[in-house]
Amino acid sequence: MKYIVQLIPVFFFVICDFNVSYGASLLKAQDFPKTFADLTFSQRIAVLSEGYEILESVYDKEGRCISGCAYKGINIEEDIKKSEQNTADARNQMYSLGYKIGNNNKFMKTSDNYAQASPGCIPRKYDIPAGQTEPVGEPLMGTPQITSSYGFRKHPITGEQNGHKGIDFYTPIGTSVFSTASGTVAAVWNDDTCGNGIKILHSNGYETIYCHLSKQLVAVGDKVSAGCEIAKTGNTGMSSGPHLHYSIKYNGNYTDPKNWIGRG
Question: Between the CA of residue 136 and those of 75, 132, 133, 207, 218, what are the distances in Å?
């Protein structure tokens, strides 16, 4: 009996330790209707504190969302409507900040009032103004091919209907990735979907997310300037080939990036 009593606390500690070991496994496919909305409060905090992003919403044959849902049970039509409203809200806010839709359907400042502080980074993407605080422009040099736009599609790997929460650019592994606005690195992580990912917080409610990276060149808490290199592209996570997944969020909601990058 003496030995049994001594073992009980050790056994209890191990069980507790496993229960708080959350992370990427919580974002894997679960039995219906297991979604992010079904996680306990402590599980949600554990996932969000690590910076994990649910980049795709998946629907069953009846059109109900079963993974990556904005809320439990949302259908495709509701999700599309919500996404369109998020984008409209973000677009109106850009107008209020002094932007207009210019060439190539892309936002441009109505006056050149950027803070011209030198970011002091090499390499640097010089078509992104040094003092830019909103994520306007592309995170890669040149105009790489867009292999998947923001919106709703059939997933190239699983074949399921899904909502794609960003834009995919084709690019060879090891290509430089640049921050599209000045900000603070909020998360650097790895999971089964995004692979190696980075999330940056910007001004006026904007966030940018970069996935499938081969190398992350920044750490949580780093201050980054607009146009500075933050990562190298790769093929990590759920990826059908080398590419960069790029997302923009406004006030916590995913937004169609096409007016911010000028393509879609």
Answer: 31, 8, 9, 12, 20
